[in-house]
Amino acid sequence: MDRLDFAIKLARRVGFYLLQHWGNALNVKEKSSFQDIVSDCDKHAQQMILSEIERHFPKEAVLAEEDHFETGQKLWIVDPIDGTMNFVHGLPSFAVGIAYSEGGNILLGVVHDPVLNETFYAVRNGGAYKNGERISVSEKTTLKESIGNVGFYVGFTGHFINAIEKHVRRMRMVGSAVLAASYVACGRFDFFVAKRANPWDVAPVLLIVPEAGGCVSDLQGRPANLSSGEYLFSNGKVHSSVLKIIEKVAKT
Known about the structure:
Blueprint: H1 3-21, E1 29-33, E2 36-38, H2 40-56, E3 61-64, E4 68-69, E5 74-82, H3 84-88, E6 95-102, E7 105-113, E8 118-123, E9 128-130, E10 133-134, E11 147-150, H4 157-164, E12 170-172, H5 177-185, E13 191-194, H6 199-202, H7 205-211, E14 215-217, E15 231-234, H8 239-251
Parallel strand pairs: 3-5, 11-12, 11-13
Antiparallel strand pairs: 1-2, 3-4, 5-6, 6-7, 7-8, 8-9, 9-10, 13-15, 14-15
Helix pairs in contact: 1-2, 4-8, 5-7
């Protein structure tokens, strides 16, 4: 079975399920804090994905957000709802994320946005696509032309926005890491900063953004991987400029 076709169809099927409960999630509970929540929809969507992987690729491991932490040479990395807070509150920015890696190298990534019916995907050395059309990062070369996005992290986000807002056209907060980075890949954003992210939050876009011609690093400018924990996704042309501002924030 073709893994990319499998992942795309599965992400879209899960996305259809999520649309039935969007803004009306069942049994919403706090996880680590009141700012981190989970619903029965997260758990059911994840089980839908796990069941299909088990059926078609029974010898392969799965790392998934909701307490499913396997390891293996061949590893699927799953986020059933990236942007649960948006999903629960009826906001339109949430997505299904599925990636596949071998030996720590991501070979394919899929991000499906059920609300806009947009599927972003890439395979290693094969380019990046949205609904079958090739995508690429923006050509903006300066921050003053740029629109950026930042994830929510207490103690960082406000300071970062305060430091960068006078240099850019606008800043935005989408509330879904895989969507924000996918928007970098297709040129809607010029950069995205994630101060705290788990592997399942970013696995697909660690491939999609570079395959679209962009750049991914940690917040010190080092090559990023699944365990980096913090990320800068950009079109490459404004990468160093954003890193300089992040460095200034770190010193304050």
